[in-house]
Amino acid sequence: SIVIAYLLEGLVGFLQRQGWPRLGAVMLVYIAFIAFLVTVLFGVIPVVSRQVTELVQQLPSMISDGLMSLTQLPERYPEVVTAEQVQQVIGSIRHEITNYGQRVLSWSLASVVGIITLLVYLILVPLLVFFFLKDRDLIVAWFMRYLPRHRRIAGDVWRDVDRQISNYVRGKFWEILIIWAVSYAAFQLLGLNYAMLLGLLVGLSVIVPYVGATVVTIPVLLVAWFQWGWVSEFAWLAAVYFTIQALDGNVLVPLLFSEVVNLHPVAIIISILVFGGLWGFWGVFFAIPLATLVKAILSAWPRQESEAEAGD
Length: 312
Prior knowledge:
Elements: H1 2-17, H2 22-71, H3 73-76, H4 83-134, H5 136-144, H6 152-190, H7 195-205, H8 211-228, H9 232-256, H10 265-285, H11 287-311
Helix pairs in contact: 1-2, 1-4, 2-4, 2-7, 6-7, 6-9, 6-11, 7-8, 8-9, 10-11
């Protein structure tokens, strides 16, 4: 609820700067948020759920076709691949499929509690979002009462980090929506199966820089290969997909994140590993803002010390 309210606060602030009263801006943004939530729940999730079911049903035949292609490799490339190596790979794949099936069964048995929890969240989260938006100033004032009066360094760091995090989180939200919509439209026009599901995966992959795009490429190309094989349709799909990835990295990201402090790729990957290991999905999502927070603290501390020395 806090994350969603933080995302929506930017729109509320924009409407306030245009002359809207706080309550009116909150109500308009909240109604738009509820409309978006209803669209996702009743428009997107049923389609994604149906395509996941279809994909699971098609997996046995897809795996069978893939194993058949593997068995033909020693005949086509005997100097590169041997029959023994192929049999080892097939045995490993079958073993992993068996383990995966057992995990899916255990997950399905435990999903009843998850469904009940989700229903509770569907009621509580929108309610809390409304009050976080409506009473933002009151909540912030209450929280500030418990902070020390002399907090110049913390204030400087927070102003810098707030600007960076707000730009990053809101920019990342729009990046997910844009890449999802463009990928879905492209996959649908090319006739790729499970277009909504794969488009959603491509959109969510931007949450994890560098790694996400690499990982999601595998299911996209595999589904295209099982559907068409090595034909022109597969080549067109691959070309369009990699074009979307290139435009995302070279055009969309610079436009959306022009005001975000640049971090070295090594720092980004390390922050994803560290914060993702600590807090899971939210750690991955906020890895770059948290890394920016660490950088802002390190940048502000020596500056404050140098100012104090100059004053002496």
